[in-house]
């Protein structure tokens, strides 16, 4: 689960991390009122969407010469103008894709004079199973470009969970950022706050870009991106309330209501599978036969009829889907339950695309019998290869 920048900064401030004063705004007038609460004379008006590259982005509704989603303002009128151009319009950045995202929230912060910018992030290193600290002197830039062009400017430090964060980690980060004296001490303090926030919120990523030295010699977080482990949200109901459903794909939101693992993709063959590994194999074999999957959907090992019906309806709600492949290996999940769910969903949504079903495992013969006697145009498959060939052929034939 991701949150907005203003939410991330409010959260980090609770862990003692220095951030500029700022206020969220949902309307132009709220943005102006927010600026009145700030010392000024420089304000920063920032579009709040779950995507990076906002400053370099462009609004679909505005001309090519219009400014992006991060703007400086020196008067209330300039704040009003910036807010008026952003709110309700669609911001397209390198991370949103061509469709962009509509801006519904703003963040008005106090402007600061920057002496130097850095990059600092905490994330889970899956190779070591530890929290990794990534630091670079090249703040304010896309870290992917830095990694590609000048990898020597990136330092990665892993933290042993048995010892936790130690003083030498703070010194190592300060050295990586080439900070000395008081700034080195501030860097260690910032790292401690970020580490405490990471553990305390079950975060999956905390990215600070930039972490800046101000003209007054203070190390301050100017932008923050925070994501959480969704599997741990039951421990953090206060954080779950920060979720902005308008920033997420509607089908993924609907899937989360039924505890379904669903990710929308760009293809036209919908997939319903039980088990993440089997789902990956199913998508791979679809591509092997010259087509592309429309989604990743894992109904899990213990799905019931209602859950399967919901999964089927979510797949069919995608207008890009031209055919569906159901691939179920019944272990804990019984094939007859899958068959009943498929039939119930197909009848409810008036199935209008080819459907190929491959069942194997517990109660497989009963499941096949239920499908065969349903009266629906369901194509049975013997194995995964056969299923992929048949759905690709059916979709091409229908086209």
Overview of the structural elements:
This is Succinate--CoA ligase [ADP-forming] subunit beta. One of its GO terms (molecular function) is succinate-CoA ligase (ADP-forming) activity. It catalyses: succinate + ATP + CoA = succinyl-CoA + ADP + phosphate; GTP + succinate + CoA = succinyl-CoA + GDP + phosphate; (S)-malate + ATP + CoA = (S)-malyl-CoA + ADP + phosphate. InterPro entries: ATP-grasp, ATP-grasp_succ-CoA_synth-type, ATP_grasp_subdomain_1, Succ-CoA_synthase_bsu_CS, SUCC_ACL_C, Succ_CoA_ligase-like_bsu, Succinyl-CoA_synth-like. ATP binds at residues 46, 53-55, 112, 117. The mean pLDDT is 91. This protein is an alpha+beta fold. It is built from 13 helices and 19 strands. The two termini are 38 Å apart. Strands 8, 9, 10, 11, 12 and 13 form a six-stranded antiparallel β-sheet that branches. A four-stranded antiparallel β-sheet has the order 1-7-2-4, covered by helices on one side. It has helices at 5-14, 28-37, 76-86, 143-149, 167-176, 181-200, 237-240, 250-257, 276-288, 305-316, 335-349, 364-372, 384-398, and strands at 22-25, 43-47, 58-59, 70-73, 90-92, 101-102, 106-110, 114-125, 130-136, 154-159, 203-214, 219-221, 224-228, 261-264, 269-273, 295-298, 323-330, 355-361, 378-380. It folds into three domains: 21-110, Dna Ligase, domain 1 (2-Layer Sandwich), CATH 3.30.1490.20; 114-240, ATP-grasp fold, B domain (D-amino Acid Aminotransferase, Chain A, domain 1, 2-Layer Sandwich), CATH 3.30.470.20; 250-398, Rossmann fold. Helix 5 crosses helix 6 (181-200) and helix 11 packs parallel to helix 12.
